[in-house]
Amino acid sequence: MPNPKKEPFIKNRLKSVGYAFKGLMVLIKTENSIKLQLIIATAVTIAGFYFHISTTEWLIQLVMIAMVMSVEGVNTAIEYIADFIHPEHHPKIGLIKDVGAGAVFIASIIAIVVAGIIYLPKVFS
Fold first, then answer.
1. What tens digit of pLDDT does each residue of 91-105 get?
2. Taking a C-beta distance cutoff of 8 angstroms, is the pair 64, 118 a contact?
3. Which residues contact 63 (CB under 8 A, 6 or more apart)?
4. What whole-number distance in Å separates Cα of residue 63 and Cα of residue 121?
5. Cβ–Cβ < 8 Å for 7, 18
6. Which of 108, 123, 113 is nearest to 36 (CA)?
7. Can you tell me the distance from the alpha carbon of 60 to that of 76, in angstroms, rounded to the nearest whole number?
8. Domain boundaries, the chain
9. What is the CATH number of domain 9-123?
10. Of 30, 56, 34, 31, nearest to 114 (Cα)?
11. Distance of CA 92 to the CA centre of its chain
12. Coil, helix or strand for 86?
């Protein structure tokens, strides 16, 4: 059986970006945790400009923002899959969701520690 004709590379990549953007919009519209993370990301970005953080600090801050929000997106996907597979409460599904939430918690705690390392010396100097 012959392979169906593949789409041109650029067209395929543009579709992929469209799907990714759609997923981002779903996260922003439906997940309160992402909304809170966007508020925090905006606040630390403003703080970065106010305190004139270094290029290295900007890079680290941006990586931390991306890490927390990306892990939150993966956690949300895990929750959607778990709810789809087993809509009723089930202890194993609860465990799966707890592990995903734990990953977000780890990323968030590390982001807070990094923010403290960047900003506390500036605030108290």
1. 999 999 999 999 999
2. no
3. none
4. 20
5. no
6. 108
7. 24
8. 9-123
9. 1.10.287.3610
10. 56
11. 24
12. coil
* Cβ atoms 68, 76 nearer than 8 A: no
Task: Name the H helices within the chain.
Answer: 9-30, 32-51, 55-85, 91-123
Classify 50 as helix, strand or coil: helix
Cβ(45)–Cβ(52) under 8 Å? no
Mean pLDDT, the chain, as a whole number? 94
- Residues with pLDDT less than 50, the chain: none
pTM, two decimals, is 0.86
* Structure-block tokens of residue 65: 């923002």
Residues in the chain, total: 125
DSSP string, 23-34: HHHHHHHH-HHH
